[in-house]
Design brief:
Helix content is about 40%, strand content about 15%. It is of the alpha/beta class. The chain has a seven-stranded mixed β-sheet with strand order 2-8-7-6-5-3-4, with helices on both faces. Strands 1-11-12-10-9 form a five-stranded mixed β-sheet. The chain is globular and about 60 Å long. InterPro entries: Aromatic_deC, PyrdxlP-dep_de-COase, PyrdxlP-dep_Trfase, PyrdxlP-dep_Trfase_major, PyrdxlP-dep_Trfase_small.
């Protein structure tokens, strides 16, 4: 290994294969072919009894693994709100991989400590959060939501005289969670992991777009955790955040906003009205690897109550540093963490305010184009396209499902399925800066061809 560590050809091989992959991303199948998936059988082998050849290992990954990847960095992948990658973010991640930093503490990486401090300030500014708001840099919104709700649990119980860290949940004062009945599944997961259970949830009826209905919002109090949504995963709709937050503030309730992909609407003057009120929430979550197009994985939790998040994520140990520098692990569940802040910093530093606006508003423009062209082709668009989500259906559920399967098999583009208001639907998530007007038109043609093939 010492020889290979000093041999630039190993890293050069990976760089060459990466450049070949990038060069072909525009025309590569969006989803791997059956043959490419079948070729993965080559990886099913016994554990080697001794060291292998680094060049051969990388060649196998490129030759066998590359064709079996989902081509989400191109312009025609519309599944799961997965973004592409801004080139400088990808390059920064490669550089950070060579550095191999552990972003746990200042002592383990002064660079990551400083960059987290810088990006924390940028995020506060972008989302209008007050000075003192703290950011935790995590893998994604699932963990970010867990962090935000854990901070809420700590603070709400502390106000009632109960230290959950010392006394646990047994016999603790009862808390209530209020959220729309279309909340994301990751919210339910976080609720369960934190020991609340679904019995603590008071679901609020939503309208035809999945927005929480204010006229159905129950009275709130100081034992309430209100969870709002900035971007419904099917329709892209936003809860009436400002109005709901105002009610919560009057009642001393905690407000968490799940903004995995939608929170970034705040950076675009033309879309910022969708997120009005987030600046008054207690905690927010966002995924940079979605709308901002950083490499995976890159999530953020923001909490205006720094002490609540730090107490909820509390750690101790005589070997751990206790100093005035930022120690990132104080605001996340993990101690050992990769240096994901490097590519987030690079992406934000490169784009700036105007670049982020151009990226985010561009996703909305392409989504509107997608909806208009699908409607003109005779498909039924089921949602108001307020952000980057398009929900579409055929004449009946059977035709919708069959058309989706044909689109996915075409290799031209890829979308996911959903059930919306008991109706089968095709979910188009426009999340890539690469997506061009031509990509949208080409994808709509794939929809039409799929529908015709199904009809026979």
């Amino acid at each position: 290994m010492a020889r290979e560590f000093a041999d630039p050809r190993v890293v050069a091989d990976a760089q060459r294969y990466a450049l070949e992959y990038l060069a072909a991303s525009g025309e590569r199948n969006i989803f791997p072919t059956p043959d490419a998936i079948a070729a993965l059988d080559a990886f099913d082998e016994p554990l080697p009894q001794g060291p292998g050849d680094a060049h051969e290992i990388l060649e196998q990954l490129h030759r066998v693994g590359g064709p079996a990847t989902v081509n989400q960095i191109g312009g025609r992948y519309f599944g799961f709100v997965n973004g592409s990658v801004v080139p400088v973010g990808l390059a920064a991640k490669q550089l950070a991989s060579v550095w191999d930093q552990n972003a746990a503490t200042y002592a383990s990486s002064p660079l990551c400590s400083r960059l987290e401090t810088v990006v924390e300030g940028w995020l506060r500014e972008l989302f209008g959060m007050p000075e003192g708001t703290v950011a935790g840099f995590v893998s994604g919104s699932s963990i970010a939501t867990l962090c935000g709700l854990a901070a809420a649990r700590y603070r709400l119980l502390a106000r009632l005289g109960w230290d959950v860290n010392e006394r646990g949940l047994r016999e603790s004062p009862a808390l209530r969670i209020v959220t729309g009945d279309q909340a994301h599944a990751s919210v339910a997961k976080a609720i369960n992991l934190l020991g609340f259970g679904q019995a603590c949830v008071d679901p609020v009826a939503t309208d035809d777009q999945g927005r929480l209905r204010l006229d159905r919002l129950p009275p709130l109090d100081d034992r309430t955790l209100l969870i709002l949504q900035a971007g419904n995963v099917c329709t892209g709709s936003f809860d009436p955040i400002a109005e709901a937050v105002a009610r919560a503030r009057e009642a001393s309730a905690w407000v968490h906003v799940d903004g995995a992909f939608g929170l970034w609407a705040a950076v675009s003057p033309g879309l910022a009205s969708l997120t009005r009120g987030i600046e008054d929430a207690d905690s927010l979550t966002a995924d940079a690897h979605k709308t901002l197009n950083t490499p995976y994985d890159n999530g953020v939790v923001l909490c205006r109550d720094r002490a609540a998040l730090a107490e909820a994520m509390k750690f101790s140990g005589s070997y751990l540093p206790n100093d005035t520098h930022r120690n990132g692990m104080a605001y996340t569940p993990e101690m050992s963490r990769r240096s994901r802040v490097v590519e987030l910093w690079a992406t934000m530093r490169y784009l700036g305010r105007s670049g982020m606006d151009e990226l985010v508003s561009g996703l909305h423009d392409r989504a509107v184009q997608f909806a208009e062209e699908l409607a003109a082709a005779g498909f039924r668009v089921l949602n108001d396209v307020v952000f980057n989500q398009v929900l579409v259906a055929c004449e009946d559920d059977e035709a919708t499902r069959a058309t989706l399967a044909a689109v996915q098999a075409s290799g031209e583009c890829w979308c996911g399925g959903a059930v919306w208001r008991e109706r089968a639907a095709i979910r188009v998530s426009v999340s890539s800066w690469v997506t061009s007007p031509e990509d949208v038109t080409r994808s709509v043609a794939a929809f039409e061809a799929a529908r015709e093939a199904v009809a026979g």
